[in-house]
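User: Could you go from structure to sequence for me? I need the amino acid at each position, not a summary. Structure tokens:
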């Protein structure tokens, strides 16, 4: 049980949030299947990305990781080896789904297992198209849940229309397509994050993007690259919201990734009237980066739905907190995907925020939040439910809560932001 600091008078200072989780995973994976030595700077040494490194080591890839510096000795597209141990994906959905895409193309057997949360997350969304391509996958409930066993190889290309806007689905199919003779195509209902597309190009490969359709031709050779991982906007989001809602605050967040498929949180903050400025934008062709400054703001409610949802899906827990501190009724809809994240985030957000005074209601595909409400706690225990983003949201909520509270399951935060509490403490202290 970790005590949380409540009633924080101000948050001031500058921080570098850690590297982007999505990009860190992809840099290891593409480095492993490229030819030559890939270097990764500002890698996220969170538990999820360490799970990816561990899985590739078990397939014979030499990877050295020293804090945020990683070197991957690429094996080439056909060089991965049959693992003689189970591949443990831990809590990481991205590891599971993208790895399945690569394993689908490998002519050997592998077993994947993860933690209790992974065992509840639907995998048919990737095992179905990968099976259509020719992979043999089995698992609980017809290959929908871990543990999964896969034997790949000898794939044929598909033209796949995904029912969900999911970068994990899109990326799994594109990675399998990289090893498949012919052109593989994925169409999605709205645009999800495009880090795989951008990184395949950085490694010298070719991907064709036409609106919501992405195509890749197979048997391309990827060449090792030097990757700089921008700060994770999904981690920055906690401090963007904290800076907006805690009194007397000004926080500068340096080197934050500003890929337009990820910046929905910035659009929402602007719509709600936040005092946010963006400076020093650079690196636009690969992965754009900039510096963000947020100040205490007078906030008004907003509506969030449609094509905006995939651009901020991981930020919805912290946006829900933001909405409790805004005047009016905020409606979040078209977000049923929240139910299949690390926890059912509609349930966990609503349950936890209600405990200390939020006026929040779950709907079938999102939530309705009425603000502005004071938050108060009397020796209250809140719970991350083992979900890193719920844990961080609750720690930020505590900053604007009167009373005392503590967090159960704080260790989950190490999945994506191992230095979260150090950064929070540094901002409180200044
Ligand atoms: C991710 C895609 C998103 C996101 C997850 C990371 C990725 O999931 O929620 O945290 O790195 O591709 P979906 O593809 O399921 O939307």
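Assistant: Here is the amino acid at each position, in order:
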């Amino acid at each position: 049980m970790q005590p949380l600091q409540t009633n924080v008078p101000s948050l001031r200072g500058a921080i570098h949030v850690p590297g982007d989780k999505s990009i860190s995973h992809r840099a290891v994976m593409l480095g492993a299947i490229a030819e030559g030595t890939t270097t990764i700077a500002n890698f996220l040494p969170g538990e999820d990305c360490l799970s990816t490194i561990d899985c590739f080591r078990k397939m014979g890839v030499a990877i050295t990781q020293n804090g945020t510096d990683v070197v991957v000795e690429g094996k080439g597209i056909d060089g991965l080896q049959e693992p003689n141990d189970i591949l443990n994906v831990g809590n990481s959905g991205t590891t599971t789904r993208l790895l399945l895409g690569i394993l689908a193309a490998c002519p050997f057997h592998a077993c994947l297992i993860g933690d209790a949360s992974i065992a509840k997350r639907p995998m048919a969304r990737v095992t179905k198209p990968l099976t259509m391509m020719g992979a043999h996958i089995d698992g609980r409930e017809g290959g929908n849940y871990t543990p999964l066993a896969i034997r790949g190889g000898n794939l044929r290309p598909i033209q796949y229309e995904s029912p969900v806007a999911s970068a994990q689905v899109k990326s799994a199919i594109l990675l399998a397509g990289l090893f498949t003779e012919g052109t593989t195509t994925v169409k999605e209902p709205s645009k999800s994050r495009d880090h795989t597309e951008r990184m395949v190009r950085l490694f010298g490969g070719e991907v064709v993007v036409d609106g919501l359709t992405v195509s890749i031709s197979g048997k391309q050779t990827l060449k090792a690259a030097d990757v700089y991982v921008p700060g994770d906007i999904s981690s920055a989001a906690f401090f963007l919201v904290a800076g907006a809602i805690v009194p007397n605050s000004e926080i500068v967040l340096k080197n934050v990734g500003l890929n337009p498929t990820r910046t929905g949180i910035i659009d929402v903050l602007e719509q709600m009237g936040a005092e946010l400025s963006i400076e020093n934008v650079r690196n636009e062709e690969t992965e754009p980066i900039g510096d963000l400054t947020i100040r205490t703001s007078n906030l008004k409610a907003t509506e969030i739905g449609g094509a905006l949802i995939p651009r901020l899906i991981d930020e919805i827990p912290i946006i829900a907190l933001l909405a409790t501190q805004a005047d009016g009724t905020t409606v979040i809809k078209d977000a049923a995907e929240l139910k299949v994240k690390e926890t059912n985030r509609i349930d966990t957000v609503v349950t936890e925020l209600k405990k200390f005074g939020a006026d929040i209601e779950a709907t079938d595909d999102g939530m309705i939040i009425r603000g502005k409400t004071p938050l108060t706690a009397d020796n209250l225990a809140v719970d991350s439910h083992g979900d890193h983003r719920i844990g961080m949201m609750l720690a930020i909520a505590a900053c604007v809560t009167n009373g005392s509270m503590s967090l159960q399951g704080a260790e989950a935060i190490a999945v994506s932001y191992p230095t979260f509490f150090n950064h929070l403490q540094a901002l409180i202290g200044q």
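One structural detail worth keeping in mind: The longest helix spans residues 21-33.
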